[in-house]
Design goal:
six-stranded mixed sheet, globular, alpha/beta, disordered N terminus, five-stranded mixed sheet
Length: about 325
């Protein structure tokens, strides 16, 4: 009898252990873009999986429009997404919520003119072929840049392309300029020059950022994991912001990001300088999850409606921005 009880005890213990392990290794599909970011260093070393208890599958997208489609189909449950496709998705009633800011975009997205295209000043853009991922933050910034230059999309030929398509077209001299992000931006700058950046355009009333969104169903069932996810993001962003000089070409973290993204450590250092990555305090500030993010999404939606990119804009976008996870992650 004792032997039987011992066997039953061991069997039940193993069953519980296996069940616990299965719960801890919940598979989560997370969307991302191929650009460098501090968090890519904790993707590379597996520490993000450890703190969340998730088995993470990372799925790369070319644009926020693709993210919205994947969210709508149930293909992913968490993703980073630009503020423009986020605004469009929220306006169309997609079943997700923004839970954190990933980065405020500056020179990491820029308008590049191709050498030999005859573009020496903004006025030279008239009649030129400008490539951009349609519906992206870069597209929004391009519209802002054209307005800044006293032009509209009718004064140029806007060509919708994915970043990889932009790189290919650039090498064939098929386009004259492009508004795009890293790593493709680094590639085309080898034969081009920066005309303006998303950060400069933002100052004229066209701010852009990347946020983290999660489906409402997943958010309701995975509070602890999401809080730990955001804690890890806050910590790595804070490390970069407070120790930027240490994130140099010899830094193991920079090398990890470079390996993850597929560019050189030097290109990573340059790219990271092109955005602001909020830590816990900045994320929960009035500028971001404290209200500013919803305001930016609203102003973006109003503009998109005015130029016919979306059919309707909500009166208020606060209901699409849930600060509770970020607040808990910040210990507030």
């Amino acid at each position: 009898m004792k032997h039987l009880l011992k066997i039953l005890f061991i069997s039940s213990t193993l069953t519980l252990a296996m069940a616990s392990q299965a719960m801890a290794q919940t598979k989560v599909i997370i969307g991302h873009f191929g650009d460098p970011a501090p968090y890519k260093s904790i993707v590379a070393d597996g520490s993000l999986e450890k703190v969340t208890g998730w088995s993470i599958e990372w799925r790369q997208f070319n644009s926020g429009a693709e993210v919205n489609a994947a969210m709508a189909s149930g293909g992913i449950v968490i993703s980073e997404i630009g503020s423009v496709p986020l605004s469009a998705g929220s306006s169309s009633g997609l079943d997700y919520q923004m839970i954190s800011v990933g980065k405020a975009i500056d020179s990491s997205e820029a308008l590049i003119s191709r050498n030999g295209a005859g573009i020496d000043k903004p006025a030279d853009l008239r009649g030129k072929r400008i490539a951009v991922p349609i519906g992206s933050t870069a597209h929004f910034s391009l519209m802002g840049a054209l307005k800044m230059y006293n032009m509209t999309e009718k004064d140029v030929t806007v060509v919708g392309m994915s970043p990889n398509e932009i790189a290919a077209a650039w090498s064939q001299n098929a386009i004259d300029a492009a508004f795009v992000w890293y790593p493709v931006q680094a590639k085309i700058r080898e034969n081009g020059k920066i005309m303006t950046t998303a950060g400069l355009v933002a100052k004229t009333g066209f701010p852009t950022f990347n946020g983290w969104v999660v489906t409402n169903k997943f958010a309701a069932a995975n509070r602890a994991g999401l809080i730990n996810f955001l804690k890890a993001m806050n910590q790595i962003n804070g490390d970069y912001s407070k120790n930027t000089a240490a994130w140099n070409v010899d830094s193991p973290k920079v090398k990890a990001v470079a390996a993850n993204v597929g560019i050189t450590p030097a290109a990573v250092v340059s790219a990271l300088e092109g955005a602001v990555y909020p830590d816990a305090d900045l994320n929960m500030s009035a500028a971001w999850m404290g209200g500013g993010a919803a305001t930016t999404i609203k102003s973006t939606a109003d503009f998109l409606k005015s130029v016919g990119r979306i059919s309707a804009a909500a009166d208020n976008y606060s209901k699409f921005v849930n600060p509770e996870f970020a607040k808990a992650a910040a210990g507030k």
